[in-house]
Structure formats: structure tokens, C-alpha cells
């Protein structure tokens, strides 16, 4: 158990609102929360950080071209990366949540050249948890009985939720997901679409994007970095792709199955990939390449 000091950065006009967040955090009487520092100054917020969770990004407004969205976010994440480079510990673990998360993460990493690329990740744990929960509900078991689902690729609607290596604990025995669910058409169709489009479904219902489930996924992601993953289990996170065994192009932040030990992640190797999976993994990689190339063209601007 590690005591935590929270440094909360926001833009100046939002400081009164941030005070309300501070009050709520105090009122939670959290056992590990030692101090809360609200600020609008990067040099305060980023100083000597052990962990940075970057949630602020420009949301897509109606009628906005994806290109304009990328341009606005390149500016934000270039400045956050620069601040990390300047003020944070070189061992800082950086989690990017603000969308488009994978590409924002890549831009932040490229803007902080002296921090190892391995220290940057983006959040696909929410998608991972969504996939896990869908399978669990379908099988009538608790979500904890479902392990090793995989989210491949982009945190967007091209992501590929893969259950070919997923195991379900059904009344004490571990079954392959396809044997537990017994509905291949659902697993290869509606299941995938439900997970891919879940964020939009939440917005449609709530008129606001995922809040509690996103916060829970951030906690899961960070806890696993600090405490490691359980033996025989892997989780999904967007990490820097360089020479992996799955033929995913280099220099992308791409979601892979990973295991974590001593605060270092390792991509799970040797998982069999069939043609169905290959096509979906390639499609999401193609989207990420396009996003990256567009974003990088704005970096010098």
C-alpha cells in the first residue's frame, strides 16, 4: 500500500470547480490519500511525478473533421509531453486517457524524448473490462470468472475485442470462451460490435461519456503497473510497438495483451492468430498509422 499525493491540473477558469472535486476527495476519507494539490501551473503539477494520468483532451464537436480534432490534440499532448520532459521523474509512468488516446499517447512520448517510450501507455482497460463483462453476463458468471480477453489496436470503434484465448470459470472448471458461450455467431458478431460501440451507447443513454467505469479502468491499469498481473493472466493496454511477434507495425501505440512484473510490461508472445483475427488486427493498425501520420505532420507546425 502506497500513500498518494494527488496533483490536479486544470485550466485557470476551472479552478473553482476543481475546489469542489478536492472537497469530494476529502469527503471520501480515502485511506491512502495523503494530500491534494489543485493547480493551474504545469511546473507545480508535473514536478517529480511518479505517475501521470492525462485525461484532458479536446472532445470532438459536431461537424468537426477528425483532422481538426487531431490537430487540437497534438498541441495539447505536445505541451504535456514537454512538461513531463522538463519536470517529472524519468521513471514516471504515463497513462493517456484523453481521446484519441493511442495517438495522443504517441505524441506525448515523442515530446518527452528522455523518458523511455515503455513508460507511456494508453487506456484500453475500459474496453477490456467491457469485453470481460459481456462474456460474464452471457455465461451467467461473475466478471472475475472471465480472464484473458484481449483488446487489440486502437481505442476506437476499429478495436478488436478477441476472445480466442479467453477462459471462463464455469462451476469450478476452466472452459475456453467459445465452449462456455456456445454461440460463435454472437462472439464473432454482436459481441464485438457491442464492445466497440459501448462508449457511444453510454453517451446516448447518459448524455455524458463514461465516468465511473473509466475511473475504475484507470485504477485497474495503474494498480497492475505497480503491483503486477496475476500468474497466468494478461490484461490489455496500449503500449509502444517495436519489433513484436504479431507483425504490428513499429512506432505506434497499439493495444496488446501484456503481463506486468516489477513495473515493466511484456507483450504476451506466441498466441495463435487465425485469419479472422488477423484481418481485424490489421484494420485497426491501418487506422492508427493514418492517425499517426496526420498527427506527426502537425508536430512541426
TrEMBL record:
Record EC number: 1.1.1.37
Domain Lactate/malate dehydrogenase C-terminal: residue ranges: 124-298
Keywords for this protein: NAD, Oxidoreductase, Tricarboxylic acid cycle
Molecular functions (GO terms): L-malate dehydrogenase (NAD+) activity
KW Transport (keyword) present: no
Biological role: Catalyzes the reduction of aromatic alpha-keto acids in the presence of NADH. Plays essential roles in the malate-aspartate shuttle and the tricarboxylic acid cycle, important in mitochondrial NADH supply for oxidative phosphorylation. Catalyzes the reduction of 2-oxoglutarate to 2-hydroxyglutarate, leading to elevated reactive oxygen species (ROS).
Protein name as catalogued: Malate dehydrogenase
Source organism phylogeny: Eukaryota, Metazoa, Chordata, Craniata, Vertebrata
Amino acid at each position: 500500500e502506497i500513500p498518494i499525493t494527488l496533483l490536479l491540473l486544470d485550466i485557470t477558469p476551472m479552478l473553482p470547480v476543481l475546489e469542489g472535486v478536492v472537497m469530494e476527495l476529502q469527503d471520501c476519507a480515502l485511506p491512502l490519500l495523503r494530500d491534494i494539490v489543485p493547480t493551474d501551473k504545469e511546473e507545480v503539477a508535473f514536478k517529480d511525478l511518479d505517475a501521470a494520468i492525462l485525461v484532458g483532451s479536446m472532445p470532438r464537436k459536431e461537424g468537426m473533421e477528425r483532422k481538426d480534432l487531431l490537430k487540437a490534440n497534438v498541441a495539447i499532448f505536445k505541451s504535456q509531453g514537454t512538461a513531463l520532459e522538463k519536470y517529472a521523474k524519468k521513471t514516471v509512468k504515463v497513462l493517456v486517457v484523453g481521446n484519441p488516446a493511442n495517438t495522443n499517447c504517441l505524441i506525448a512520448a515523442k515530446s518527452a524524448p528522455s523518458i523511455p517510450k515503455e513508460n507511456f501507455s494508453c487506456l484500453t482497460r475500459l474496453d477490456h473490462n467491457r469485453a470481460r463483462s459481456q462474456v460474464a453476463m452471457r455465461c451467467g458468471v461473475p466478471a472475475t470468472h472471465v480472464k484473458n480477453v484481449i483488446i487489440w489496436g486502437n481505442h476506437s470503434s476499429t478495436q478488436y475485442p478477441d476472445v480466442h484465448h479467453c477462459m471462463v470459470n464455469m462451476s469450478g472448471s476452466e472452459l475456453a470462451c467459445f465452449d462456455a458461450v456456445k454461440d460463435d455467431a454472437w462472439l464473432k458478431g454482436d459481441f464485438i460490435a457491442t464492445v466497440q460501440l459501448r462508449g457511444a451507447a453510454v453517451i446516448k443513454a447518459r448524455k455524458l461519456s463514461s465516468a465511473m467505469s473509466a475511473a475504475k479502468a484507470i485504477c485497474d491499469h495503474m494498480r497492475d503497473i505497480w503491483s503486477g498481473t496475476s500468474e497466468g493472466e494478461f490484461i490489455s493496454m496500449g503500449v509502444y510497438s517495436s519489433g513484436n511477434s504479431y507483425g504490428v507495425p513499429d512506432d505506434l501505440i497499439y493495444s496488446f495483451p501484456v503481463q506486468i512484473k516489477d513495473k515493466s510490461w511484456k507483450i504476451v508472445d506466441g498466441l495463435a492468430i487465425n485469419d479472422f483475427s488477423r484481418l481485424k488486427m490489421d484494420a485497426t493498425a491501418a487506422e492508427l498509422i493514418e492517425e499517426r501520420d496526420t498527427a506527426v505532420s502537425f508536430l512541426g507546425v
